[in-house]
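Need tokens for this chain, all 617 residues.
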Amino acid sequence: PSHATLAGTHPYLHTIQPYESNTSNLSLSAALPLSPWVDQSKMTEDQSDSEYARPRRPSPETVSYLNGLPLDENLAAEQAREYVAYFQKNGEQNNDGTTKSDDNEPPEYPPMLSATHAALSSIFHEFASLSCEETPSQQVETLVRISCRYSLVAKRIVLAGMRSYWTFLSTHRFGSHVAQTVLRCAVAECEVNLDEFDDGQEEGQCEGKMVIEDSYGSLLQDEDGSGVAAVPSSISELLLQSIEELKLFAPELVVHVCGSHVLRTSLCILSGVEFVDAFAPPGSNNQNNITSEWDSGALAATRRGKFKDKKKKKKKKRGPDEDKGNSRQEVTVMNAMKVINELKSDDFYKGADPLLDELVDIISLSDGNHGDKVQPPGELQQRTCHPSAGPLIVQMLRILSFRDLHSQQKASKKSGNGKGGAVPDRRLAILPQEPRYSEGSQAESLVHRLICWDGAISNKDGNSGDSLEIPKQPYAGDIIYGLSGEPRGSILLETIFRCCPDSFHDELCSVGGFYDEAALREYIQHGVSNFVVQVILMTARNKGQASKMVKLLCGIVEDGSILKAKPIQTKNSDGVDASERGDISKNNIQRMGIIWRAFEMCATIGSSQDQEQILSA
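Here are the structure tokens for all 617 residues:
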């Protein structure tokens, strides 16, 4: 069905439209408040009025210096590993109990790391300015990746270099990439912390502390006698202050094409969750432990924008194979993020958990004044279909579900996610099971607000069996129907079906009309909502639900409409067929995915009788 048909059928679908923010980028940058880290006494009148949040243009000398640095992340990793391997080899014990020693002279501190620390110290006061330039921002990201990989002090330096400019950089096309890289690399475990590597070694052999002191000594000390160093000593304090700065303008960043990505990274850090490829190729996600996570794991994905060849302005004609897209399925799963020890402390969680709850309330437009009262569709439902806010809300729901499951496992001291289900397989398109939230959790409250669900109304007995009743929910049925036909809203609906408890899954199918054969046929024929039906089949929770879906599908499969493409004879209000009107676009497309997921459902939780019915149809 077309969107016009959907809108005419459901009165609340007009609210499911792209959301437009009233705040433009220019007004956002001009409205930023003065950061507490900015010294007002050293600012001119013009700067304090409008330019205090926008970094100045970098000096040409600094740009030339930074662009001329021959930075190589792979070379830095190779040098660091050789340096560490030498001392680890000398520290091993022989069979007779003596310590192994190498007659060769000890290697010098990795030259690439020394140059990186020196460069990072040189550009510290122009860090934010350089992040807003195309080529320098690429160099800045490389500096961040190399330095944070082997130094805890460097993590503090890069976080401090972004202070007071987080909001502006998050809305910048180049600065937002730097902001995401800084956040992710600052919390990640060091491959080797060379700042303290010389502890216990012979004096003069390791130079880690010496290089750090030479590079950042002036930034780490209180030079002006004010009692406050330029760079605070706590990474967790710097991190929470940075996200607090973003929280002030989170309502605008939610719908910003760049700012929403920075908010996603912030949510992952506060919750300690990262998204990795579910079907990772061999060697990635650090599966074989041969390479570092920085090389082939989740951190390798923080390597952002590439240089564009500006000479190639003409668009190439796509070949027949290119129009089919990438055959590789992009599916992510959530893992616990590997972070530095300081971020594993209770003190950090005391600040991170309330901050995460505040961001969730801001993004979901929850002011806490309505209680359990159901609100009619409005701005939140528009956000679910926004190109930037929609994916952010989906990720937030997945994070809250993972968080709720993790807290349950801690309380019960158990691991796993309940029923195992089918084994994930890329070739068979069998996806891993998503963590499911529990009743009464924060994730459930978010879902209820997203679809305007009234938890006081029980729908367990409605629309079940052969008797079809009108859904009792005042808004949820229309919202589910509208979201299922919207490209971004349907992804949110799929996520809800994957993450919800068993009882709520059945109620969603009932209220959404998925237990009605006519409505189910309409869902299947739609180019977007048929994927929602596939997810329902994949996530069916019990044999009774599977049998119910098989009974509905048999009548749809028997007529052959979803097995092969053929013209659909449709008549308009005058009784004229589509073929007579010359409308040749009314062709049904194959929906073999529905058949595939139906067999997967039968094999996973269904019965042999259900399989026979589908085969017979």
